[in-house]
Every structure is written in structure tokens, then in C-alpha cells.
Specification:
Strand content: under 5%
Structural class: mainly alpha
Order of helices and strands: HHHHHHHHHHHHHHHH
Number of domains: 2
Number of helices: 16
Radius of gyration: 21 Å
Shape: globular
Number of strands: 0
Length: about 290
């Protein structure tokens, strides 16, 4: 990946080639978004904006063919997050900016992609009905799945778009550090935290949306997205302070992916950290242990 970053930063046309080629693909759009983020962070908003304008051309063609504005929103979202990070030099603000990005993506999907969403919902619900029928025939127990609605699918797609845009930003920032400040991104990510007030508002909003019912529950993922990122930063900070290896971190990621309750444990840990500051305690404990030795 470092080689790709070096190629992107070799010149304007190399960066343009990666940005344009990636944006025309559903599978590799994140590479285009990360390239845009890297150029924006290193060379400024004007250079990043120039890349976005050209990269949008194949993305718009893809949208016209499929009816899905996801590629366009990904490029614009990654660029917007990179601009926030470039202008504020504050990773916390860039992470929090993923919330309004998801809301804008959901609004754009609802207003511009109504027919696409309805078709997607119909196809998905038909598949669920078929699965329900097949399972009922195989077993004696009657099974029923909740059908999805257009707002729910819009929320899922918008959240997914914000996640990929945020990951593309992180990749672009990692590339920048790898090329010009080796190890800098790791230190920056492990120190990532959010203001206590923002943590409480996001956690309260997510809890309220969860209890409002299935129609609103999917939107709770938007509210906890920044908290989830901070949770991973805490895990990496703990691993660094205690000498845990890659295997331990991999296990943490697997647990988070597989077990839904772990996602809420993540949020609770971040809320508690806003008051307790785990990283300071781990640092103090590590220093004390070193003196004892």
C-alpha cells in the first residue's frame, strides 16, 4: 500500500489516474476516495477538489447506470472529511463530521434515489419471504422476519457510505504519515478521543433511537459511529500500553464483528472513558510496573 501512496504523490496525473480509475468501480471506489483524501491532506483543498471533479465523471456514469448515488457520495464524503482534517488538524472533529455526512447521504438517497431504494427494498423483502417459506417447510416452527422499509434501507446505505468514507480518510492519513511522518498516524489514532459533551449526546441519541422502534433503530448506528472509532482507538492504546500483539487485536475485531452486544459494550467503554480516562491510568500503571522491575 505504501507503494501505491508513493505513486499517487509522484505527480498530479498519477493521482488523477488512481482517482478516476477507482471511482468508476463499485469494488475499488474506496481507493479513489483514499487517494483524494491523501492529496487533500498533503497538497491542500484545491488540489483535492480538482481530483474530485474529475473522479466524479465516472462516478456519475455509474450512478446513471445503476441508480445508486453511493459512489458520488463516497467521493464527496471522503473529500469533505479530509477538508475538515486539513483545516482543523483535529482528527476528533473529522471523525465527528461523519455523523452529518451520514445524515446528508441518507437525505440524498431518499430524495434522489427513491425508485432505486424501492426496488432494492422489494427485492430484499422478496428474498426474506422466500427464506421464511423455505425454513418453515424444513422445520415445524413457524418463522417470521421483519420486512425492511425504504427509510431503514436508506439509513443502512447512508451509514455504510459514512463508514467507508471515514475509513478512506484514515487510510489517506495513514499514507500521509507513512510517507512524511512514519509512526505519526499510530500515535494520533491511539490518542483519539471526543469531548465529553459530544460523547454523552451521541450515546443518548443512539439509545433514544434504539428504543423508538425498528423504523428508527437503524439510525442509531449513525450516532454511535464516532464512538465506535474511539472504541477501536482505546483497544489499540491498551494493546500498545500492555504489549498485546496483533493476535489480541485481531480477536477484538472479530468479537466486535460477530457479537452484537459487543458493539454496545464498545459504546459503554467510550462513555466511561470520557470520565475516567483509561489511557492515563494505563500509562500510570505501566510506568509503575517499570519502576518495580
Amino acid at each position: 500500500m505504501r507503494g501505491l501512496a508513493e505513486f499517487i504523490m509522484r505527480g498530479r496525473w498519477q493521482a488523477l489516474g488512481i482517482a478516476v480509475l477507482g471511482s468508476g468501480s463499485l469494488l475499488f471506489g474506496w481507493i479513489s476516495a483514499a487517494a483524494i483524501a491523501l492529496v487533500t491532506l498533503r497538497r491542500g483543498t484545491a488540489s483535492g477538489g480538482w481530483l474530485v471533479l474529475w473522479a466524479l465523471l465516472p462516478a456519475v456514469v455509474l450512478t446513471a447506470m445503476t441508480g445508486d448515488t453511493g459512489s458520488v457520495m463516497l467521493l464527496l464524503g471522503a473529500y469533505g472529511l479530509a477538508v475538515v482534517l486539513r483545516e482543523t488538524v483535529n482528527l476528533s472533529l473529522a471523525v465527528m463530521a461523519s455523523v452529518p455526512l451520514a445524515l446528508l447521504s441518507g437525505l440524498a438517497l431518499t430524495l434522489l434515489n427513491g425508485a432505486f431504494l424501492e426496488e432494492l427494498v422489494a427485492t430484499f423483502n422478496q428474498a426474506l419471504a422466500q427464506l421464511e417459506q423455505d425454513l418453515s417447510q424444513e422445520g415445524s416452527q413457524q418463522l417470521a422476519f421483519n420486512a425492511l422499509s425504504v427509510p431503514q434501507v436508506a439509513a443502512l446505505l447512508a451509514t455504510g457510505n459514512a463508514v467507508i468514507a471515514l475509513m478512506s480518510l484514515m487510510l489517506g492519513r495513514y499514507w500521509q504519515a507513512a510517507l512524511y511522518n512514519p509512526g505519526g498516524f499510530g500515535d494520533e489514532f491511539r490518542a483519539l478521543s471526543l469531548p465529553r459533551e459530544a460523547v454523552l449526546i451521541m450515546a443518548a441519541t443512539a439509545t433514544a433511537l434504539w428504543w423508538m422502534g425498528p423504523e428508527w433503530r437503524v439510525w442509531s448506528a449513525v450516532a454511535v459511529l464516532p464512538l465506535t472509532v474511539v472504541g477501536f482507538a482505546l483497544a489499540h492504546a491498551y494493546a500498545a500500553q500492555t504489549g498485546k500483539g496483533v493476535t489480541w487485536l485481531t480477536l477484538i475485531y472479530v468479537v466486535w464483528i460477530v457479537l452484537d452486544p459487543a458493539k454496545w459494550v464498545w459504546v459503554v467503554c467510550v462513555v466511561v472513558d470520557a470520565f475516567v480516562n483509561f489511557r492515563a491510568k494505563w500509562s500510570t500503571k505501566t510506568g509503575t510496573d517499570s519502576k518495580d522491575v
